[in-house]
Backbone:
């Protein structure tokens, strides 16, 4: 068996099973479902939830909220990163705003958002705040990485602006852009669900988690938490595939 196959087997099968076994042992030792349910009990409850239309509706709305915030953060962060890289004066202009966003606890923003906007918009807003400064920093770094000598050569030989962008800026920015997206996705997803827990919009995973906690339905808390983890892994895998294609396309260009 190849070494790479063994590593994948250990990483994605054996090690996860090991930790599930640890979870099972802890649940048996505690012997109180209200504190730690067994993996089997959680799996059965998750299967029961997955067979209902409400479960998929709840999942879909949560994904839509987080995705909307993520895409808004990527778009505005990219535009701001380009602007601050090309216009140094704008870097000073945005510095206080970006510093405040990075330094302020997420919970503070969620509480303020409860005053400013409707419940459904809060997860979108919080996901956006998690993504925006990170994408700005990554894109800013990527644009600054373009060689000044190559840019001067393009100017001297009167290379068309669009060709300069495709040949110089895109290959330089894509690695930073891809890394930023991968970093932001997990943060946006976790922050978005946390915002749902506090703001409790209708048809949301966070609302289901809060209800389960209030009524001491620990099995449901674990089941929805597993749902969040699985969705995060699937969405991250999908995004990685899209970014890989995008990066290869940029390199060919």
Residues:
């Amino acid at each position: 068996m190849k070494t790479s196959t063994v590593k994948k087997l250990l990483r994605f099968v054996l090690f996860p099973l090991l930790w599930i076994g640890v979870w099972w042992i802890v649940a048996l030792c505690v012997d109180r479902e209200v504190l730690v349910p067994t993996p089997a009990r959680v799996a059965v409850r998750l299967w029961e939830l997955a067979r209902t239309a409400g479960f998929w509706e709840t999942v879909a709305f949560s994904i839509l909220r987080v995705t909307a915030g993520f895409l808004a953060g990527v778009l505005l962060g990219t535009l701001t990163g380009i602007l601050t890289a090309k216009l140094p004066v704008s870097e000073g202009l945005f510095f206080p705003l970006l510093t405040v966003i990075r330094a302020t606890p997420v919970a503070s923003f969620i509480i303020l958002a409860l005053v400013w906007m409707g419940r459904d918009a809060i997860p979108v807003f919080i996901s956006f705040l998690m993504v925006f400064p990170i994408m700005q920093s990554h894109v800013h770094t990527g644009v600054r990485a373009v060689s000044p000598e190559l840019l001067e050569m393009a100017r001297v030989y009167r290379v068309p602006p669009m060709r300069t962008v495709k040949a110089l800026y895109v290959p330089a920015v894509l690695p930073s852009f891809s890394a930023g997206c991968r970093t932001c996705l997990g943060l946006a997803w976790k922050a978005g669900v946390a915002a749902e827990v506090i703001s409790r919009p209708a048809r949301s995973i966070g609302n289901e988690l809060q209800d389960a906690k209030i009524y001491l339905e620990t099995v449901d808390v674990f089941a929805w938490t597993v749902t969040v983890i699985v969705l995060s892994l699937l969405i991250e895998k999908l995004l990685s595939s899209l970014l890989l294609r995008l990066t290869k396309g940029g390199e060919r260009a």
In short: The mean pLDDT is 88.
